[in-house]
């Protein structure tokens, strides 16, 4: 009886769409007011984990039955992703953990908890690896609900939703090292509100120094960056030359993750 009561409590507390709004400080979900630096947040690292004892039984929400795919070995889904943020921040997820909107996590209706998936934004080819530790989204046209940080890295915050591909990752002791975040370095040259001017500078410097370049949008500004460089020393050596003209240029470090598909 105790186990049954505990399971019922976890389901009530963890299934976000089924909960009463009185449980939350806010009636509507929204982005946080104070946003930390999210660019350096690394992807979730797939490692072998034990499934949650109470969060992997079939369940029902709003009269609809959902099956948990406990023995799943491979999955590729395409559909619409959404994200959830400040309303649920600090509340329990379906497997009893506390939801942190600045972590690389997600909610899925059917995958066992926890699971790891690679999510690709089909509109811009950006990818993230997230740890699934929650249930949802309980909308017929959505397949995954991403944390605020994951949605930020997929560049889908403003639109609210995005067409994505979800690929299951089965972590093992042999392949988990493939997902270890690796550093890369960029030279931040300047920021300009004129996109055409910024792009011209990026292309010119890229050709001049025979290196890759990119524009990073930050509010109304376009940041010109050279790189990536796999070694800090490479970036520092070129920085000395770049600073002869662009005195405020500096080196920044960014984390990335190698990802593979278990299709």
The residue-averaged pLDDT reads 82
Q: Structurally, how many domains make up the residues?
A: 2
What fraction of residues sit in β-strands?
Answer: 25-35%
Q: If you consult CATH, what is the topology of the largest domain?
A: Barwin-like endoglucanases
In the CATH classification, which architecture of the largest domain applies?
Beta Barrel
> In total, how many beta strands?
12
What strand line-up does the widest sheet have?
Answer: 3-7-4-6-5-8
The helix/strand order is HEEEEEEEHEEHEEHE
Poorly predicted regions: 1-30, 257-263
Q: What is the radius of gyration computed over CA atoms, rounded to a whole number of angstroms?
A: 21 Å
Helix content: 10-25%
| Structural class determined from secondary elements | alpha+beta
Q: How far apart are the first and last residues' alpha carbons, in Å?
A: 41 Å
Number of helices: 4
What secondary-structure arrangement, pairings included, does this model have?
Elements (H helix, E strand, L loop, with lengths): L1 H13 L44 E3 L2 E3 L9 E9 L20 E3 L7 E7 L5 E8 L7 E6 H6 L7 E9 L12 E11 L2 H14 L4 E6 L2 E9 L2 H11 L7 E7 L7
Parallel strand pairs: 3-7, 4-6
Antiparallel strand pairs: 1-2, 3-8, 4-7, 5-6, 5-8, 9-11, 9-12, 10-11
């Amino acid at each position: 009886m105790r186990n049954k009561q505990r399971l019922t409590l976890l389901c009530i507390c963890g299934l976000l769409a089924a909960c009463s709004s009185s449980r939350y400080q806010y009636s509507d979900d929204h982005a946080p007011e104070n946003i930390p630096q999210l660019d350096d947040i690394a992807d979730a690292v797939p490692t072998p984990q034990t499934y949650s004892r109470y969060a992997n039984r079939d369940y029902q929400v709003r009269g609809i039955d959902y099956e948990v795919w406990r023995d799943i070995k491979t999955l590729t889904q395409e559909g619409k992703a959404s994200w959830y943020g400040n309303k649920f921040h600090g509340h329990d997820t379906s497997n009893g953990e506390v939801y942190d909107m600045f972590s690389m996590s997600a909610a899925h209706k059917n995958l066992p908890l926890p699971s790891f998936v690679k999510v690709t934004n089909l509109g811009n080819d950006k990818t993230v690896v997230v740890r699934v530790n929650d249930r949802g989204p309980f909308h017929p046209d959505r397949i995954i609900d991403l944390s605020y940080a994951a949605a930020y890295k997929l560049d889908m915050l403003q639109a609210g939703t995005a067409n994505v591909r979800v690929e299951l990752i089965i972590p093992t002791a042999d392949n988990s090292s493939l997902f270890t975040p690796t550093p890369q370095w960029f030279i931040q040259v300047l920021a300009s509100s004129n996109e055409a001017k910024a792009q011209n500078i990026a292309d010119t410097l890229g050709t001049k120094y025979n290196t890759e370049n990119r524009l990073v949008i930050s509010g109304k500004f376009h940041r010109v960056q050279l790189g990536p460089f796999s070694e800090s020393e490479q970036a520092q050596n070129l920085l000395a030359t770049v600073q002869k003209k662009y005195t405020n240029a500096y080196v920044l470090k960014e984390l990335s993750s190698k990802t593979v598909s278990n299709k």
